[in-house]
Amino acid sequence: MGDPSTRSAQGGREPFVLEARDLTLSWDGGAHIVVRDISLQVAVGEVVCLVGKSGCGKTTILHALSGLASPLGGRVLLHGRDVTGRPGHVSYMLQKDLLLPSKRIIDNVCLPLVIGGMGRADAHAKAAPLFERFGLAGTERQWPTQLSGGMRQRAAFLRTYLMGNDVALLDEPFSALDAITRVDMRTWYCAMARELGMASVVITHDVDEAVAMADRVYVLVGDPRAGRPTVIAGEVAVPRAQALVSPAVDDFALTPEFVACKRQVLDLLG
Amino acid sequence: MSSAQAAEPTKARRIAVPGVAVATLLLVWELVVRCGVVPNFLLPSPTQVVAALVGDAALLASHAGTTLMEALLGLAIGVAVGFATAVLMDRFETVSLALDPLITISQTIPTVAVAPLLVLWFGYGLAPKVILIVLTTFFPVAVSLVVGFRAVDPDMIDLMRTMGASDLQVFLQVKLPGALEHLFSGLRISATYAIVGAVISEWLGGFSGLGVYMTRVRKSFSYDRMFAVIILISVLSLALMRLVDALECLCMPWKRTDET
Asked: Which residues of B touch A62 (CB under 8 A)?
C-alpha cells in the first residue's frame, strides 16, 4: 500500500498503467453492441482524453475500464494484470461531485480509506496534510453544501486521489461547472495530476477541453443507437512540451499547435 | 424584538399574525357563549375549558401518562418494524413485490373497525393498544424509508463499488444517511398517529388513559372536560412532533449549516 506518486515510478518492464485490449461492450448483454474492438493504452502519469459525441458510449467504456461492467469481449489490464470486470482497482470521478451531504468534507474525502478498513482517526491524519495542497485548507470541518462548485470538485478529486490508485477515470469531470471555473479547474487538475504522477483517462465531448488537457486524444466515432457500434477513428498526440505546466495550459490554447491538433480531431470526428 | 435586522420583522410577523388570529377566535368563542348565542351546556367557553384543565390537572396528568406510555411503546415498536420492513424491501425485490399490495391494503382498513377485534382477541390490557399503534405507525415509516432508499443516486453506489465497498458499507455510508430526511418526515406523521391510535384504542376498553377519561366525561355530559382533554391530546401530539423535529436536528447536523 504505497503512495500513488511513488508507485507510479516503477513503470519498468510494463510501460502502461492501464491498457484495454479489443474491448467489445454492450448495454443489454449482447443483443446491442455499443463499442467494438477498442484498444487503448495509458502510460504512467499520462493524461489521455476520449472524445466523442454524446451517446456514443463513452461512459460505457469507463464503466468497463473501472470494472463496474464486464465486456462481451476483450480484457482490461492494470500494470499488465487482468482486472476485467473487477471494480476497486482504478479511481473514478464523475461530472457530479457525489460528495455525501451527510458527511463533513474531511469525512467525504476519507471515504475510500474508511471503506478500505482504515480507522477514522488514521484516515483523518492521512488526509489532513493534503488539504492545503489541494486548495482546500480550512474546509475540513465544513459540509459539502457550504462549498462552491469548484471547491466541491477539488474535494471530489482529493477523494479520488485517496482511493490510492495511480490511474483515475474521469467522466466529464468539469462540465457541471461554469465556463471560467471549468478552465481554472482543468488547468489545476492537469498540474495536480502531473505533480502526483497520476495517470488519467478523461472523457469529454468538448474538443477544446480534450486538446487542452490531453497528452493524447482518442477520437471515438459511431452511433450505437443507429446500429453503428463506436470504434476508435484515430489517435492524436498533442505536442505539449514537458515544461508546459499549470499556468501555460491556457496559453497553449492560443498556439498554432493547438489549432492544428483541434483540426485533426475534428477531421477524425467527421 | 429589539434592533431591526433584515430577517427579524418577518419572524416577529410569523409569531404575531397567527397569535392575533387565535386570540380573535378565542375572544369570539368566549363572547358567543357569554351572550347566550349557543346554550352553555352544549358549548363551554374557553375560560371554562381552561378551568376544567386546571381543576383536573392531577387526574389528567395520570391519564396522559398512560396514554403517552402506550403511544411511545407502540411508536418504538412500529418504527422498528417499519425500519426492518423497509430494509428487507430495499434489499430483496421479491419481498418488495410481495409486500407492496399487502401494506397498501392494510392501510385502507379503518383503525376504528380493527380496534374492537383487537380488544376481543387480546383483552383490555396493554397488548391490543400497542398492537393498534404499531399497525398505524409502521406504515409511514416503512413507506418513506423505502422511497428514501430508492432515491439514492445510482452513480454514488457505482462510485462506492469502485472503492471496493461492500453492500453493508453502501447501506451504512450512503443509503441510510441519504434516507434520514425521508425517515423523519414519516416519523413525524407516525408520532401523531401514535397518540390518536392510543386514544382510539382506549375508547374501547381499559382502565386508564385519556381515551378512557374521555369516554367517562362524555357519558356525564361534562363538555368542558371533553374540550380540556381534546386540547391535551393536541398538545401531546404537538409535543411529540417537536420531539421528532429535535431528534432530526440532532441526527442531521448538516441541515444546520448556517450556524457553522
From this structure: none
The helix (H) or strand (E) run that includes residue B86 is: helix B57-91
Higher-confidence position of B18 and B9: B18
| DSSP character at residue A144 | G
* Domain ranges across chain A: 16-90+165-269, 98-164
Residue of chain B nearest A101, judged by CA positions: B254
Predicted confidence (pLDDT) per residue in A13-66, tens digit: 447 899 999 999 988 777 788 999 999 999 988 899 999 988 888 889 999 999
CA of B25 to nearest chain A CA: how many angstroms apart?
43
Q: How far apart are CA B113 and CA B210, in angstroms?
A: 20
Among the ranges A173-177, A212-216, B120-124, B173-177, which has the highest mean pLDDT value? B173-177
Nearest residue to A247 (alpha-carbon basis) of A194, A201, A184, A202: A184
What whole-number distance in Å separates Cα of residue A225 and Cα of residue A55?
8
Task: Given CATH 3.40.50.80, say whether it is the number of domain A16-90+165-269.
Answer: no
Q: Which residue of A has its CA nearest to B179?
A: A102
Chain A within 8 Å of B241 (Cβ-Cβ)? no
**Does the CB of A1 have a partner CB in chain B at under 8 Å?**
no
Q: Interhelix angle for B176-203 vs B210-219, to 10°?
A: 30
Identify the CA nearest to A140 among candidates A130, A122, A149: A130
Instruction: Summarize pLDDT for A238-269 with one digit per residue, the tens.
Output: 887 544 544 555 677 778 888 888 999 999 98
**Cβ–Cβ gap A88/B161 under 8 Å:** yes
HSE (CB half, 13 Å, CA atoms) of A48?
24
Give A221's contacts (C-beta < 8 A, 6+ positions apart).
A52, A53, A56, A230, A231, A233, A268, A269, A270
Inter-chain residue contact A94 with B155, CB threshold 8 Å: yes
Q: Rounded to whole angstroms, how far apart are CA atoms B97 and B254? A: 34
